[in-house]
Amino acid sequence: xxxxxxxxxxxxxxxxxxxxxxQGQLIWARxxxxxxxxxxxxxxxxxxxxxxxAPFLSPYDPTIAGRDKDYTNGAPQLPKFCDSNGCSARPFIxxxxxxxxxxxxxxxxxxxxxxxxxxxxxxxxxxxYHLFDLIHMDTHLFGVEGGKIHLFGTDEDGQDIFSRTLHxxxxxxxxxxxxxxxxxxxxxxxxxxxxxxxxxxxxxxxMITDAVRTVPAIPLFMAVAAFMPPEMTAEARxxxxxxxxxxxxxxxxxxxxxxxxxxxxxxxxVLAAQLCGAKPGHVIRRHLLPSFTSxxxxxxxxxxxxxxxxxxxxxxxxxxxxxxxxxLGVMLQKATSADVxxxxxxxxxxxxxxxxxxxxxxxxGDGLRDAADPxxxxxx
Length: 380
Description:
Layout lengths: L5 H15 L2 H9 L3 H18 L1 H4 L22 E4 L2 E16 L5 E25 L3 E10 L16 H37 L1 H15 L3 H11 L6 H14 L3 H14 L3 H8 L4 H9 L4 H24 L11 H5 L5 H6 L5 H24 L3 H4 L1
Antiparallel strand pairs: 1-2, 2-3, 3-4
Helix pairs in contact: 2-15, 3-5, 3-15, 5-6, 5-8, 5-9, 5-12, 5-15, 6-9, 10-11, 12-15
């Protein structure tokens, strides 16, 4: 008879917790062991929150061109506490002057007035907006007294790049969410029917799936863009882009759903449900799909960055979203000239944020995939 020690009791409780844990608890326990995925998850949540609260966090409305006419193509303004005139307990920036210079053939030149300080304020009143598209507000997180602040600089239209970046993150999240949701619903329905019934039904559906997979995205969007009237609103264009991304993004997940159902449809629990009189829709919805829910969730997370990148690429080449909508592709359209590459490098600051966003999704997806695979630890 073995002695009962605190260590033995702890091991016994850990084993009991393991064997009685739900699938979600097991996935979370394995996911927490992966530091890279956990850090990426924190970054992803932070960026999602910054996109959701973009109207509050950004100091200005990003859709208004010429917001700061005296600071077009202006460099980033970073708050400071000290300058040549001393230090201050409150952060501030310097005022700017805009004038024509003979040295630049009378082009407009912006100079910094180091003798004038513009102190930062928090929770200031500014442009009206609707938080969550519901709550009318005009309070912004920060601003400056007697002027404007541009943390990431401005573009050629005087629009604040920091404000546009936060709104662009939210736009990409919305486009990706709608596209992934449409692809998810279509994949479950089409893949579920194909895998459950098999036979000639499976053959016909797979022919359709292969046909959709072979449709090139760029020519498809070129055809759609040709039929879109120029006066179409930004909201309507946003809806159509999301819809098309969803309709061309379902085949991969549908194939995986079909493969799983072909394997599981002959299991005893499925036969028992059929003998009890359960209809095919009930068997697929309540028994087959829940058996690999974790893999579906992982697939959705992994497919999300591809939706975001697709929207960015299409908007960049002029086939997707357009001004006044803020998206990464729309913002990059202004960064294609050699003048921008040589003199206004801050145009590319939003690219860093979107690289971080996409990489965070990739790391979280990889972490969830390993966490959902019970044999992943043994493979390493």
